[in-house]
Design brief:
It is a single chain. The protein has 225 residues and is an all-alpha fold. 74% of the residues lie in helices and 0% in strands. Helix 2 packs across helix 7, helix 3 crosses helix 10 and helix 8 packs parallel to helix 10.
């Protein structure tokens, strides 16, 4: 994605995140280990924690919609020649199950400008001359020469998808193969600082999803017993 196409739309958010990056770097510097890599990780965690209430709504809505997919498919097959009846039965199913099909959209719409702002903030970030190294990375503005971050980006994307997807159709199985590979391929060309953000975001998302689903796992075990 070329930053010049849409970057100006997210410029206010980008400027705020640039400011936060510098603040976090200065904090690590005063602690004696100034690190832009650590600043990226801290900033990503702060953003994801701030968006946690929206993440909860989005994930629970997705989970609820996936749980009723078998019933929706039966209705679609039964009333495939009667769109009006199908629409009415679907609304009845949503009402009976307490599911709002649009509930997951608003949290996503609110999160996207912030997450895209992070993308542009890190893509365009000026480290002040030569970008610093971080762990095995010689430069946060260059690609990972050891391909560790691209592999982590693909792997964490796959784990996150597996945690979110309950009903595995042929299409979702294909998506769970294609999407991680696509993310890994993109990461081969992106600056390491940007890929570090993506991997950190995925890891925090995985932890948040585990936390949200933990009670469901306990309830499932009790029900099975």
């Amino acid at each position: 994605m070329e930053p010049g196409l849409f970057g100006s739309v997210f410029e206010p958010i980008e400027n705020l995140l640039h400011f936060m990056m510098e603040v976090l770097y200065n904090v690590t510097d005063k602690l004696g280990f100034g690190s832009y890599g650590l600043a990226i990780i801290l900033l990503t965690i702060i953003v994801k924690v701030a968006l946690y209430p929206l993440t909860v709504k989005q994930i629970k809505s997705m989970k609820a919609m996936q749980e009723i997919q078998p019933e929706l498919q039966k209705l679609q097959e039964k009333h495939k020649n009667n769109p009006q009846m199908l629409q009415m039965k679907m609304m009845e199913l949503y009402r009976d199950k307490g599911v709002n099909p649009m509930a997951g959209c608003l949290p996503l719409v609110i999160q996207m400008p912030i997450l895209m702002g992070m993308y542009y903030a890190l893509y365009n970030f000026d480290y002040g001359g030569a970008a610093p190294s971080f762990l095995w990375l010689p430069s946060l503005s260059e690609t990972d020469p050891n391909y560790i971050l691209p592999v982590l980006a693909a792997a964490t994307t796959l784990i996150q998808q597996k945690m979110t997807t309950m009903q595995q159709t042929q299409q979702t199985k294909m998506l769970m193969i294609v999407m991680p590979l696509f993310i890994g391929w993109l990461s081969l060309t992106f600056p390491s600082g940007l890929v570090l953000y993506w991997v950190t975001m995925n890891v925090v998302q995985i932890v948040q999803q585990w936390w949200i689903y933990r009670d469901d796992g306990v309830n499932d075990e009790k029900g099975a017993a």
